[in-house]
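Supplementary notes for students who missed Thursday's class. We covered one full example, reproduced here. Read the sequence, then the structure, then the short commentary at the end.
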Amino acid sequence: MVNKHSFKDFKETAVNIYRFILTENKPVGVREIARELELSSPSVAQHHLSRLEDAGLIQQQCGKYVIKKVVLQSNVKINRFLIPRPVFYLIFVIIALILECIICPPLPMHVYFVATFINIILMLICVYEIVRVYRTGRL
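Structure (token representation):
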């Protein structure tokens, strides 16, 4: 049903449920999921949970659901947080820009401006990717 690296077959609600279970770090029940995600009823949550379970991504234990397979395409899980990968690239580019400002002033000005311009372009690309990950709700 689902590619091991894709959630294209699932609706946004199912992806949000998967993300919620992943970040909870504990078994969660149907009612808890419906309440936290503000779903219209527990049966809606149950429908999406069944689809996720059929795909082998979650499993039921003692009436509650836990993650069976972690699929993180564009995020890194640190403790309870899902952090988009471009955040780490952005941090790297910012550090490079700071080091450039400290180390490069002895260089000719045109080289300094070109390097700074490239770093700023890279920062904008990273910010764009981070916003895109949050808006699309990708994992």
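Commentary. The chain has two domains: 12-67, 75-136. The two ends are 17 Å apart (CA to CA). If anything here is unclear, bring it to office hours.
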